[in-house]
Amino acid sequence: MTGVTGWVRECRAADLPALAAVFPLGNAHLERLDGQNAGRWLYLVAFSAEAVVGHCLVHWNGPTLDGVRAALPDCVEINHLQVAAQARGRGVGSALLLDAETNAVVRRRSTIGLGVGDDNADARRLYLSLGYAPSGVRYAVDYEYPDEAGEPVAAHEAGDFLIKSLTEWR
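Predicted structure:
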C-alpha cells in the first residue's frame, strides 16, 4: 500500500471480528465470506499494522445492477469498497483497486468497473486518476445499510459506472 504500512488479501473467517469492529454491517461480512467461498466473488480486506482499514467485493459474474449488467455483461464489478475514515487519503482504496485488478487479470478478464455516486467527488477523483473512465452507463439504486446501532437506514444513490480496460496488462 502506498503511504500506509499494510497489505491487501482475501478475507478469511478469522478476519470477521476485526471487520465487524471497524465496519459494523450486521451479518454482511459473514455473507460476503460465504459468497467468496462459493466462488461468486472475491472479498478483499486491507490491513494496516494496527487494524483492518478497508474492504471491497470483486464480482466475477458481471455487474450486480440489471441495467449495468445488460450494457456491460462481461465486466468484473468492484463494489462495497469502503475505507475507514482514519485511513482515507493514505493509499488504501488504491491498494484495494490494484489487488482487484490483479485478480481479474489472473482470471483473464479484460474489463473491470465500479459505480461512483454523483455526490462522491473524492472517490470519482481517485477512480479517474487510476485509469477508470465513464462507460456511458448511469445507474440509480435504493438500498438499506445498518447504522452503528445496527438499525436499517434507507439510502438512494445515482451515479456513473466507470470502467477500465485490463488488456494492457496481458
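Summary: The CA atoms of residues 58 and 78 lie 5 Å apart.
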